Request: fold
Amino acid sequence: MRTPSQTVGPFFSIGLARRDDAVLAPGGLRLQGRLLDGEDGPIVDGVVELWDGERWGRCGTDAEGRFAFSIAKPAPRPGETPRLDVFVFARGLLRHQLTRIYFPDEPNETDPVYAGLEPADRETLVAAQEDGALRFDIRMQGDRATVFFEH
Amino acid sequence: MIDAADPYAGPVVLPDDESFGLEVQVDYPGYRSTRWRAPKRPLVTLPEEFHSLAGPVFGEDVLEELDDDLTRQHDGEPLGERIVVHGRVLDEDGRPIRGALVEIWQANAAGRYRHEVDRHPAPLDPNFSGAGRCLTDGEGRYRFVSIKPGAYPWGNHDNAWRPAHIHFSLFGRLFTERLVTQMYFPGDPLFPYDPIMNSVRDPRARALLVSRFDLAETTPEWALAYEWDIVLGRGGRGTTPFEP
Reply:
């Protein structure tokens, strides 16, 4: 029987933000976004973790719910398009949530997971080009809620 | 009990409330902060092979000296009851997970976190930061020296107090073996009143969050000891949170 999950709570930065872990690729692409709750308000005590299969990173959200990473587009796995796997932790989440970030300039409709989603849901997983950076907002709830995966 | 009109406004949910299933609840009214944060739509299932993907590997370079001894990170010693917390990190088949990064954080003996958001009017301890890290050894073992954290009030409901706990963050071998959880101390009278602990509805699963007093590992004239093993589950296989 596995050990159950419990929330990170509001004070996780004591243990999980002791180092700057937001650089997966030095001098790489800037990926930025906001973590938003069901009232479109910022989640100021959340943490986002990225994993591209080789590089890992972590960033706590700020007073506006913002997070930012320096990343590189990973090589695609066979039959898939490039993506980042994402865990979201926050006070109020009893278990972390899993989502993924696809890149806007890729034939994502050939990716089996992406292709299996409703069109409106697909859009929630694709980063947008914005002023030379990639923009990816994570919405926990609502009409435009980000797709989360079972894990 | 839950107020049907506004379940999030209700008082704490006690463990004999059967209105929830036995799984870990994502959206759990007893814990009010879930209201606008827990996803409301069903989670999407990923292909089984996703759950076999390897996760990040951490080495000694992420550790600093004394990361595993929270009582020696300052010039003086922290106040409180000195404890050893140790155990093993295992996969669901009972195999030890070696080299797993274990990160902990906790309140001080007075129940106060060294964090700007913590407004609990209890003293900070200049000799206690409350954070630790280690990597599991060749048998999956971890070991920290710390002080026993205090209970603290948290405003979730009238006169709400968290039972004493240590936060744990763990990375397994697989990406989906990631876990963040909390370790509790045996016999805490606050257990029945805590909605976070009781969000785990299965009493057997809840018991897995409680450490065991370990007389054999106490250090005479110096420290008490608690043992807590952690089992990292992976996703997939139908993703049942608990085996029957």
